[in-house]
Design brief:
- A six-stranded mixed beta sheet has the order 3-2-4-1-5-6.
- By secondary structure, the protein is of the alpha/beta class.
- Helix 6 crosses helix 7.
- The chain is 36% helix and 18% strand.
- The radius of gyration is 16 Å and the shape is globular.
- It has a single domain, classed as Phosphoglycerate mutase-like (Rossmann fold), CATH 3.40.50.
Amino acid sequence: MLVRLTMIASGATPGMRKGRFPNDEPPEPRALDRAGALAASLRRADRVWTSPALAARRTAEALGLDAAIEPLLAEQDFARWAGKSFEEVQAGDPKGMATWFADADAAPHGGESLAAVARRGAALMERLAGESGHTVAVTHAVPIRAAMAHVLGAPLSSVWKIDIEPLSLTEFRGDGRRWVLRASGVTVAG
């Protein structure tokens, strides 16, 4: 049984452009235009899911996808850090920032740990492994990085060494027993 999963990173938001931790905001108009250009290149899917976040839902709409909300695709919950710049957090909570980078189980911001995001992603992929066909999932950089680490059997600390561009596609293939990373970083020009 062949299983395909195409994860699409949501379009860039104003906060992303300013180096801020994700806050539930819509993508920039330019990102929506770029998503529209990407739509024609997407292959037919048997299932289409989106994160509950506004950026992912609006990206899915701009891609012309009729997507069902899948909570396992949610962006990491950054709680107190949401909407703040990396510099602000580093200045106000340097110990918390260092702990967050060093310990995947830590959630110094009061939200969700990286390990929790990874568990959600692993659960999603395990569920999909039992289904044939192609799934398109519009989500965010952290869940995509965690899925890559999961498939590669890499430590979660490796997520900090993976760059996921807005509107990039990451493809996985599975045979019902194991997943492989097929392609990553495919983006639309612009």
